[in-house]
What does this fold into?
Amino acid sequence: RQLYVAAPEHYDVWVFDMMLEHSGEPVRAQSVGNVDCCWKGASGSGGQGFEVAQFPERLWIHWFSFAEQAFYSHMVHLPEGVNQPGSNARPQSLTIGLAPGGAIVLWHPDPYGVENEIARLQAQEISGNPVNFRQRTQRYARQHAEHLERYGLQLERW
It folds into this structure.
């Protein structure tokens, strides 16, 4: 099983922490870091991925949005059935999409490669100091300033 963290193109994020929880097991901390792509694409979603024995029941995620200069956090409860053997909802991969405005969208591909949305959530904006990301933000701005000026954050798109 693969768990991915993705962001829409041009809306990079830095994932500080991701804690994976499953009943009866120790909490697993997962390092993610920079996520610069791919919300959706011709070959499906991409982004930073890692292998898990089973999908967590809950995961806590904390990230910084370069486009917004904002910090977000949310505890995600995965829908029931995702880990149950024999369930049609039991995917081989799961993507956690992080978008502007703190939008979180979970989806997985079906056996035919069609991506199925399974949850849409809203993270809380939390306090943080964007100055800690000054160099990365400058690099991000050089790469994406034209797109952001032209299209903005598109908060309703996700």
Q: What stands out?
A: The chain has a mean pLDDT of 87. The chain has one helix and eleven strands. The CA atoms of residues 25 and 46 lie 28 Å apart. The first helix runs from residue 134 to 151.
